[in-house]
Amino acid sequence: MSKINVKITQFGLISCLLISTFQLKAQKSAPKTLVDVPLESNISLFYSTNKTGTYQIYKKSADGEKQLTEDVNFNFWGLKVSPDKKKFICYRSPKGLIVKDNNSKNAELWLFDIDGSNGEKLISLADYKWRSHNSASWSPDGKQLLMAAEVSDKNDFNKFHWHLFLTDSLGKDPVQISSRSTMFAEPVFSPNGQYIAYSALSEGTPYSLCPSKYMEIYVAQLDSTAQKLKNERKLTSNDFWDGNPCFTADGQDIVYSIAPGCLNQVEYMDLQLVSLTGKVYDVKTDKSVKMNATTIADGTVYFQYRPGLTGNSCIARVETGGDNFTIIYQGSNFSIINPQVVEY
């Protein structure tokens, strides 16, 4: 990361708009696949792709690809498969201009059976007077959902801050588990439920709309009695944005994305790994965007990958040690985002 040029140029601002336009607007031409590596028989990939115009949820396995959601008026994104592998949650947002696509300020949280049937809306912004919400994931026992929401913070003169919330498995009875009046994002449970990892601003950091040099990876435990985070520890400390944490299957390490700042996330983000003791390792570093990691038991990391400045996002994989990088599913005129790998 030390070689990254952190200067934001006018070209960077223009490229940000161009990439958003290329990746979020509906694709009109027939989908064309560049890379399609067969998957092992014991795993399936779930993801969102705009190959038919709007972003829809798909499942890919050794038997082929299956579309799970279908609604030309909405985008579906941010999916997470339940621990029992019988259901998945995802966000739904209306089709529209760039600012409305895949946007947490226009999102509803939905629940589906694993085959895409029996869709049910769980949370809309009006339900709890939230201004935005995203990053919902499951507790290991499937009894709770963990997420981030932008809410009025009574401890800071009712300013809006992002906090972490727990609900039941149907998105009911939300409880705010974060306390510091700062910014929290992208929470996820460890596989054994002992820890919660998330990205957050450090204590005393001024709140910013673009906290490019302040977001760090944290880990904490949940006080089940008080329903609050406890024993919070900051695992990373650098001059970069750290986010998208994902535990490895053994729960001992966290894979995350790192970038110089908000605008640089458009141009390149690297993958790193941090242990629960705070030791950091490089996983994949180059001039590309790598985010939304998901792992399996053998240590392989699957992630959303965009190799070029104006290219489409695809799915790639690499070992946690950085070896055997491979693009496994890539389209020439459509993007693939938010992958989750599931072992059977």
From TrEMBL:
Q: Which Gene3D superfamilies match?
A: TolB, C-terminal domain
InterPro entries in the cross-refs:
6-blade_b-propeller_TolB-like, WD40
PANTHER family given in the database record: PROTEIN TOLB, PROTEIN TOLB HOMOLOG
The UniProt entry's sequence similarity note says: Belongs to the TolB family.
Q: What is this protein called?
A: Periplasmic component of the Tol biopolymer transport system
Q: What is the lineage of its organism?
A: Bacteria, Pseudomonadati, Bacteroidota, Sphingobacteriia, Sphingobacteriales
